[in-house]
Amino acid sequence: MGIRNKKTLTKTRRHTRDIDQIKADLLSPKHLAQHKNSHAAEDLPGLGKHYCVECAKWFDAEVNLIGHRKGKPHRRRVKALSVEAYSQKEAEAARGIGSLETTPASQQTKEVEMSS
Ligand SMILES: [Zn+2]
């Protein structure tokens, strides 16, 4: 009887890892191993053998994992991971603070296209 609000309960139950955590998982295997080790294998579906790194989800069978990788939620997650995180530098550039010299060339060309 901890949380009385039903909406909060379902939201937190479904909550997996945050995008920035998954990005760190993809970059370093050590980070990922740390996350996996924080759960006991016998508590996980399929004894924690079938794991989708991008979605931070465990599956009970290999077939389900393969099926999941072809699905829309997985592709949506992969796309979200490919997008750069919104940074303080970006926020300042939008306000006109900070110098544009520090932004990469690819971003500069984008800004020119938008203004013309
Ligand atoms: Zn996935």
UniProtKB/TrEMBL annotation:
Region of interest (Disordered), residue spans: 94-116
Q: Name one GO biological process term.
A: ribosome biogenesis
Report what the protein is called: C2H2-type domain-containing protein
**Similarity field:** Belongs to the ZNF593/BUD20 C2H2-type zinc-finger protein family.
Q: Which InterPro entries match?
A: C2H2-ZF_Maturation_Protein (IPR051879), Znf_C2H2_jaz (IPR022755), Znf_C2H2_sf (IPR036236), Znf_C2H2_type (IPR013087)
UniProt key word Zinc-finger = yes
UniProt keyword terms in alphabetical order: Cytoplasm, Metal-binding, Nucleus, Ribosome biogenesis, Zinc, Zinc-finger
Pfam families in the cross-refs: zf-C2H2_jaz (PF12171)
Q: Could you tell me where the Polar residues compositional bias lies?
A: 100-109
Output the Gene Ontology terms for molecular function. ribonucleoprotein complex binding; zinc ion binding
What are its GO cellular component terms? cytoplasm; nucleus
Q: Where in the cell is it found?
A: Cytoplasm; Nucleus
User: Where is it mostly found?
Assistant: cytoplasm
Keyword Cytoplasm, does the record have it? Answer: yes
Domain C2H2-type, by residue range, is 52-74
